[in-house]
Amino acid sequence: QGCSLRSFPSLPSSLVMSDGREVLSKVLIDADNDAINRRDDDEISTTCPSESEASPRTTRCSSEVESSHPSSGESTNDALRKLKQKLRAKTDRDRQAWLRLQHEDLVRGERAIQQKLQREVLERSQQDANARRLQAEVAHERGHIVAAGQEKDDIKERMAGRDRQQGELCRAMQQKEGTRASLQVDLHREQQALAERQRAEQERQRRIREEQERRYREEQRRLYERHYTRCIGG
Q1: How far apart (Å, rounded) are the C-alpha atoms in residues 154 and 134?
Q2: Which of 41, 43, 84, 23 lies closest to 5, judged by CA?
Q3: Which pLDDT band, with edges at 50, 70 and 90, does 94 fall under?
Q4: Which residues are 14's β-sheet partners?
Q5: Which is nearest to 33 in space by CA: 53, 6, 52?
Q6: 216 pLDDT exceeds 50?
Q7: Low complexity: which segments have biased composition (predicted)?
């Protein structure tokens, strides 16, 4: 339908039609005004034919004009012009009311779109905040994992050092055991040698004593024989 869009200065420069097309408001204004003028002319020509036509419709049109404009001094053209003006004024009011409703719908739609965009922006901000929070938590957990891995490596290194110390201690103990066994063998050998020397010394002492006893007996025997011979000879 035709629209007096110029009466709405806040109306956007373009409108989106029901089929999705975007049309400039000026194009709509010009097209609607042309259509309204043609429709008004068609209504008047259909409702009130020319004066040359002699028909009951002419009588009805004249009666409508006369009833609308009771002044008998006015011509039919003046009555038609006034009727056309009334029809156009009524059509303009209807158009303005329709435009007002359309404008309100557009404002509500724009407000709804803005609210939807605000909600989407808020949701996106919330999602971004959640994503940043999750990233921070992941980084924090990754730090814990890295620290745990470092601690695990430190524990492994300490255990390896302890194992090395235990290995060195075992080798030292084995060396000590070997040294002690060797010392025990040497001690046993020395003890055996000492026992042999002691037996040899005891044997030598025994022989010395036997020799001394033999010499003593021999000396006693010679002394006895000498004394006995002297006694017999004297």
Answers
A1: 30
A2: 23
A3: confident
A4: 24
A5: 6
A6: yes
A7: 62-75
In degrees and rounded to multiples of 5, residue 15 shows phi and psi of -125, 150
Q: Tell me which residue of 49, 73, 52 sits closest to 62, measured CA to CA.
A: 49
What's the whole-model pTM score? 0.32
Residue pLDDT, tens place only, 166-200: 999 999 988 888 888 889 999 999 999 999 999 99
Using a CB cutoff of 8 Å and minimum separation of 24, what contacts does 44-47 make? 44/80, 44/83, 44/84, 44/87
Listed in sequence order, the residues at least 6 apart from 229 whose beta carbon sits closer than 8 Å to its beta carbon are none
